[in-house]
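The protein record passed on below.

***
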Amino acid sequence: MAAARCLLMVAVALAPLLAGVAGVQLSSRFYDRKCPKLQRIVRSAVAQAVAAEPRMGASLLRLFFHDCFVNGCDASILLDDTASFTGEKNAGPNANSVRGYDVIDAIKTQVEAACVATVSCADIVALAARDSVNLLGGPTWTVQLGRRDALNASQGAANSNLPGPGSSLDTLITMFGNKGLSPRDMTALSGAHTIGQARCATFRDRIYSDANVNASFAALRQQTCPQSAGDGDGALAPIDVTTPDTFDTAYYENLASRQGLFHSDQELYNGGSQDVLVRMYRRRASMFFLDFAKAMVRMGNLMPSADTATEIRLDCKKIN
């Protein structure tokens, strides 16, 4: 595994995939002169956070996904509500669920001390997601930088753009396709569920109602997730039943044995179009890691529309 990981760190040094908004082009060297210590600052802070709580790695990765899928990777998810808009933090997919805001705030404080008014919160989130994956045993990749921070946020867009845990395969393919991501990208990015935990409320229907669930697995999860809504809604369970703190291919092994925690997970291996790819990822960690890294770069290139007002926030929670 160590040899494979070393190989993958080289293999996923991906060729730059450029994107931009309002005339800004992303580049892996965007801060080389303006803030040369940026990536060291971010990685050190993420390493401390993950060492203290391995689950935080999954939380920072999810924060990036939930940011990018709502009007592009613009740190809008970090904004607190104001008198002029209702932000995304309390949207259905995010409330009592998305975490890691405090870690991003702490990193931003360190970055501002080193490079005042230079680095966007959106870029910090992108780097933190990459480092979280790598620190938990997954691949690394070159993060394109130069994003800017939105001046607004949309709870409605968060509610409508993020696929839920009860999504069908067709819904997943459509929602990822709406972001320019292929079914292969979707199946690779779903492998992020090899780390982290989920609340009972998000998988209750799966373990009590789905027919294609391993009976022993369902019984295990039912021990801490009662059938009645409201009871134990916040009880946590690992999304990957075998190695929840390690970024590996166990997620796909779980799908093959009908132990996907979410209905949407098991949809990837249920006699549909993604079965073959799930089997390939089970057998070839190198393929999964490479596809995941490529898909993360593509997702990271989701930009706000060109007419979106942006800035470099000094405090990630509020506009300047």
About this structure: Strands lie at 20-21, 24-25, 149-150, 197-199, 236-238, 310-311. The first helix runs from residue 2 to 11. The mean pLDDT is 93. The longest strand covers residues 197-199.
